[in-house]
Amino acid sequence: MRWMLIIFVFLLFSAGVSAAPVCTHVDLDWLSQQVSLPMGAKIVHKKEQGELCEVVLALDGELVPLYAGKDFLLAGKLFKDKKFITRETLETLENVARKERTRANEKKALEKESRRVFFQQNLKVLEALTLFSFKPGKAESVLYVVTDPNCSHCKKLLPDLELVAMENHLEIKVILFPLLGPKSREMAIQTICGKLSYEDYAQIKFQPDTPGCEPADRLLEKTMGFFSRTNLSFVPVVISGDASWVVEGSNINQVKQNLGLVCEDGSNVSSNGCESVP
Fold first, then answer.
1. Residue 131 · residue 192 · CB < 8 Å
2. Which residues pair with 246 in a beta bridge?
3. Beta bridge mates, 146
């Protein structure tokens, strides 16, 4: 695909320069007609490059170069006369890139704190949405984990949480939030209507055409409505029993640090987990 773009661009430049301006029609409205854009997207650079319009968008703190024609849009790397045009453009925008990353990080931090406060104000709702729990012996504290039955990051996190729970007398309360698409919802219905235990849920496998039931409809309606109020669009999420802290993603070491535990490997590699289906 990359070489196809390079050859196509070479042919465009070799064909001669069009007399008509090539960037006048390119704005966010036109771009959104070609491709779906997230909220907050903006144009930070626009320049004619032969018969193409070079456009750089700021998307969630990242700069994304695109090349627009009269009625099409290309994503890729542009070369001309043995020069890497795309790289040169991005190098001139390094200050813009830093500002956009800072702005995006600040926005994410504010959103995370807003969610934490919301959870803290609605602890009774978290409790009501809990489907089942993992409770090894006498538990002295609680962790809520918001998970999707079809989320790979969630499946990797739960065994790590179990080990932490056993070693530190914690109860893990599980809330199903099936945001990753129809398969996730069917698996959640399968779990609720089948009255699966925590142990059964750990081994769950997708069964198509699962018959629904009223308890599943009621619980999932409440769950989806509750988390939509927080703009939560990913899983997993771990919430302390009093919501004094929240870990968004599958980093078990962040959970341990919030519990005041030492991470054996010293690792602090974060993960954003699974994102919802557009």
1. yes
2. 239
3. 175, 237
Whether omega before 211 lies within 30 degrees of 0, making that bond cis, reads no
CB 215 within 8 A of CB 195: no
pLDDT tens across 194-208, in order? 999 999 999 999 988
Q: How far apart are CA 39 and CA 278, in angstroms?
A: 12
What pTM, to 2 d.p., does this model score? 0.75
DSSP characters for 170-202?
A: EEEEEEE---S-HHHHHHHHHHHHTT--HHHHH
Cα angle 12, 18, 19 (rounded to 5 degrees) comes to 170
Instruction: Give 122-275's CATH code, choosing from 3.55.40.20, 3.40.720.10, 3.40.30.10, 3.40.50.410.
Output: 3.40.30.10
